[in-house]
Design goal:
The protein is of the alpha+beta class. The protein is built from nine helices and 14 strands. Helix 1 crosses helix 5.
């Protein structure tokens, strides 16, 4: 039974990745169409189009609590497949679809990126579980949704511009860091702090988890995951940029914040990957210079 489950899970994983790969051309066309809409003087920014790649949530989809219960005895590979399945079915809170603009600049270049206000979560607006995941899962979801992971500079800007800043709450280190029980316990701690501070779901939140990020360090360490952040204050992250863990690693402190693949450069829409890969423009989005995205 266990072997059959793993074989089926592997098949589903491969199908997800294959489907994601074949959509890239159409997603690029969608970005081009969006850029054309801006260029022709659209009166408002069509943020809804940036989240068009996210499937609608079904009314009968699991809540965050129900999902946590369903994977409480799953091993790590089984849990990753369950996370992938739920998110690719659109089981995430509605407020994550309301993107927030973040301003960045370098010298004479101004940029506006559009980010999810919170970390990826499973469930509805009232009962959701902020869900850590490994790099393989995060990359597959980002690609399917037509988003990317942030850079270190973006993470700093998000924290700087957030009015809902948490006090970091680390849990004791050890083997349980990767357990669903720790995922759930940390999520509950964040919820309690959010309620005590009067934070509203959908507002730009920061300071409650480390970010999984893009970095040039992964060019020479392709089997690793890069993490950064968990700020105590502006310019004071608990976690410096690190690639110590393998790409299959995830623990309770990690969060996945997605960034739209469309960025405004001096008010005009551009594909974010084209800016990050351009040696002359990348510094507006990255403090490492150009970063290869795809």
């Amino acid at each position: 039974m266990g072997q059959a489950f793993l074989e089926l899970s592997t098949l589903n994983w491969n199908l997800h990745l294959k489907w994601s790969f074949t959509r890239r051309h159409s997603l690029k066309l969608a970005v081009s169409a969006l850029c054309a809409k801006y260029a022709h003087g659209a009166s408002d920014r069509p943020l809804a189009e940036m989240t068009r790649g996210i499937p609608p949530r079904r009314d009968q989809a699991m809540t965050g609590s129900q999902f946590a219960d369903s994977v409480s005895s799953a091993d790590r590979p089984q849990r990753e497949h369950a996370i992938l399945d739920q998110l690719l079915e659109g089981n995430l809170p509605r407020f994550l679809r309301r993107l927030v603009p973040i301003k960045l600049n370098h010298e004479s270049v101004d940029a506006t990126i559009f980010v999810m206000p919170e970390y990826l979560a499973i469930g509805d607006d009232h009962d959701f579980l902020r869900i850590p995941m490994n790099l393989h899962t995060a990359a597959a979801i980002a690609d399917r949704f037509n988003f990317v992971l942030p850079t270190k500079k973006m993470v700093d800007a998000i924290y700087d511009q957030s009015h809902c800043r948490f006090v970091p709450q680390p849990l004791p280190p050890g083997d349980r860091m990767t357990s669903t029980s720790y995922y759930r316990a940390h999520n509950d701690m964040i919820d309690k702090q959010s309620q005590a501070r009067g934070f509203t779901p959908g507002a730009l939140m920061a300071g409650h988890k480390k970010d999984v990020v893009l970095t040039n360090r992964l060019r020479s360490k392709r089997d690793r995951i890069a993490i950064y952040g968990w700020h105590r204050a502006v310019g004071d992250p608990i976690q410096p940029l690190s690639t110590v863990h393998g790409a299959g690693y995830a623990d309770y402190s990690h969060g996945i914040r997605l960034v739209s693949k469309t960025v405004l450069i001096d008010g005009r829409p551009r594909p974010l990957s084209a800016i990050l890969e351009n040696a002359s423009l990348a510094t507006v989005l990255s403090d490492e210079g150009a970063i290869h995205v795809s």
